[in-house]
Design goal:
This protein has 8 helices and 10 strands. It is of the alpha/beta class. It has 2 domains: about 250 residues, Rossmann fold; about 35 residues, no CATH class. The strands form 3 sheets. It has a 6-stranded mixed β-sheet, with helices on both faces. The relative contact order is 0.13. The model has no long low-confidence stretch (mean pLDDT about 90).
């Protein structure tokens, strides 16, 4: 019982630190960018005011003008409220990290910043955690308390499966989330045959892929024989990292696959952000928001 209470207290401290850091980043770095990147779904009538020189005559409210015997124009405001759904990969490959941070840690931190950015814009926030199935689903709602529930679930999640099936998550979203939403998929893409699911989701929703990778996904250090294990299948294999030729071949192959992925996403017209566990995500996320602002 004491251990359980200690764990809960430590968890609360961790979540509080994440909240403070994420709220500061959302406020200082991403608040305006998030708002500009994800416009509201349209405009709605707000009020009327007296006509002023230079106003667009097409905005004149003729009914009000006739009633008041003066020219009045309609005022419209952006229908701002939207829903953000964080779709987070919790498969075993996300537990990998060759440096200080694991892929899972980066996904959690980015999720927290996005959640508080949405919160500051009065948007709803929801969560879907998946492996080869939907592990957890929290429908979008508003409020700080709801965001903290989402963060707590991300910290506490203990997946039932180790493998990945991205289509399982995408299919669930297609059949349950009918209204247009902002969807961030955070994954290392250790899977295949997900392109069709992404394209279908992208036609209805504002879909963004956040690809998370580790330095060892791109290059191996010059060392010796490395005994490696696939975290999802348990398959073990040995890599000769003492051979410069093998290291160069590995780097070339990973670079080729990475470029092919970028080209596929571009052809599918899916917006994407590529993040690495060995560097800050702030610059990359800011660049993405600026790109989105120009796009919309």
């Amino acid at each position: 019982m004491e251990k359980s209470e200690e764990y809960l207290k430590e968890l609360q401290h961790i979540i509080r630190r994440v909240e403070i850091r994420s709220k500061r980043m959302a406020s200082e770095l991403f608040s305006g960018e998030y708002h500009s990147s994800f416009k509201g779904k349209g405009i709605e009538f707000s009020n009327v005011r007296e006509y002023q020189y230079g106003d667009d005559v097409r905005s004149i409210d003729w009914n009000t003008s006739a009633r008041k015997h003066e020219l009045y124009v309609k005022i419209f405001t952006e229908e701002r409220e939207r829903s953000l759904l964080l779709v987070v990969d919790a498969s075993a490959s996300m537990l990998f990290g060759s440096r200080e941070h694991r892929k899972k840690d980066l996904a959690l931190e980015v999720s927290a910043v996005l959640a508080f950015s949405a919160l500051q814009n009065n948007d709803k926030v929801g969560l879907l955690v998946f492996t080869d199935r939907v592990e957890t689903y929290i429908p979008p709602r508003k409020g700080r308390h709801h965001v903290l529930i989402i963060l707590e679930k991300l910290f506490q999640i203990k997946p039932q499966s180790r493998t990945t099936n991205i289509n399982a998550a995408l299919s669930f979203i297609r059949y349950t989330r009918r209204r247009q939403e902002i969807i961030f998929l955070l994954t290392d893409l250790v899977d295949s045959d997900y392109e069709k699911g992404m394209k279908l989701l992208n036609t209805r929703h504002d879909f963004i892929l956040v690809h998370i990778s580790d330095p060892l996904d791109k290059a191996l250090p010059l060392s010796g024989l490395l005994d490696l294990e696939d975290p999802e299948t348990g398959l073990r294999f040995t890599v000769d990292a003492a051979s410069r030729h093998e290291i160069a071949r590995y780097r070339h192959e990973q670079s080729r696959q990475h470029e092919e992925l970028r080209l596929r996403l571009r052809r599918m017209r899916i917006d994407s952000v590529f993040l690495d566990t060995d560097r800050s995500f702030i610059g990359d996320l800011n660049s993405f928001f600026r790109y989105r602002e120009r796009k919309v």
